[in-house]
């Protein structure tokens, strides 16, 4: 009898402990307060046309070497379109997407892959932020520690777009 009562008491204690744990919400990683502000890159003077064209040429050269047909947009530090290139055969729907990726990268001062990763990991609140695009292929252009613009590529898969955009950004991001 004593063994049965001890077993019942133990089971009741485990159930109560489990209920108490279930009532407490899990720690939210968004509640962590970082010491420094992430992605705090100051805006600089806008990228000029000639440099923007060099970014596009580098991005398209990378894409061409793989036979990926993409659209590439470069915006300045204010998010204004400076230069655009469309490879022969690139899908038309990707024209505004390339521009959008570039604008998001410069506006939020981070690669668009950050949003893709966040959304995939359950941070769906990011979908409510104005102008966000949760697709990789938007890369900030940083020169001497200042954001001078961004490049966006679209038309292939997200990972292919990212490879092309990074090749273009390498002209500035050294």
Give an overview in words.
With 174 residues, the protein is an alpha+beta fold. The protein is 43% helix and 16% strand. The protein has 5 helices and 4 strands, in the order ααββααββα. A 4-stranded antiparallel sheet has the order 2-1-4-3. A hairpin with a 2-residue loop joins β3 (138-143) and β4. α2 (49-66) packs across α5. The relative contact order is 0.18.
Alpha plus pi helix count: 5
Shape designation: globular
CATH superfamily of the largest domain: Haem-degrading domain
Task: Kindly identify the CATH topology of the largest domain.
Answer: Beta-Lactamase
Structural class: alpha+beta
Question: What order do the strands of the largest sheet run in, or round the barrel if closed?
Answer: 2-1-4-3
Radius of gyration: 24 Å
H-E order = HHEEHHEEH
What's the domain count?
A: 2
| Uncertain residue segments | 11-17
Number of strands: 4
Distance between the termini: 77 Å
Largest sheet: 4 strands, antiparallel
Approximate helicity band: 40-55%
Mean pLDDT: 89
Strand content: 15-25%
CATH class of the largest domain: Alpha Beta
The CATH architecture of the largest domain: 2-Layer Sandwich
């Amino acid at each position: 009898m004593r063994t049965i009562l001890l077993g019942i008491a133990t089971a009741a204690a485990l159930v109560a402990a489990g209920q108490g744990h279930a009532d407490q919400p899990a720690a939210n990683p968004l509640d962590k307060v970082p010491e420094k502000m992430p992605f705090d890159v100051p805006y600089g003077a806008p990228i000029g046309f000639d440099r923007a064209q060099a970014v596009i040429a580098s991005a398209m050269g990378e894409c061409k070497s793989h036979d990926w047909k993409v659209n590439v947009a470069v915006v300045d530090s204010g998010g204004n379109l400076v230069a655009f290139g469309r490879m022969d055969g690139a899908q038309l729907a990707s024209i505004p997407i390339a521009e959008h990726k570039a604008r998001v990268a410069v506006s939020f001062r981070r690669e668009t892959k950050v949003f893709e990763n966040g959304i995939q990991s359950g941070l769906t609140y990011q979908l409510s932020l104005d102008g966000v695009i949760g697709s990789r292929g938007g890369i900030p252009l940083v020169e001497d520690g200042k954001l001078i613009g961004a490049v966006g590529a679209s038309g292939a898969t997200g990972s292919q777009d990212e490879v092309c955009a990074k090749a273009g950004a390498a002209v500035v991001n050294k």
